[in-house]
Amino acid sequence: MTCTVERRRACSRAAAAVECRDPVRHVDVLDPARSEWDTWTLEISLAARSVPPAVLRGLADHGLSVRDASPRGGGHYAAAVVE
What we know:
Blueprint: H1 4-18, E1 24-30, E2 41-46, H2 53-60, E3 64-72, E4 75-82
Antiparallel strand pairs: 1-2, 2-4, 3-4
Helix pairs in contact: 1-2
């Protein structure tokens, strides 16, 4: 996927697919200028220590892959990028 518009849409669709999943607390779509990976990025705040399979499937279904999953502040977080 090379088009910026397609990448943004994929990230937005993935956000909609995973934001209602348990244990997702919050989802934020970051544009390339705000992302440490210089591409459209989905930051996910979790109420669990790992990314559950249902969330991973929701990301993969829209062409995203997890780049980082780690503790942050008082919870856990994952960052997924459009490949």
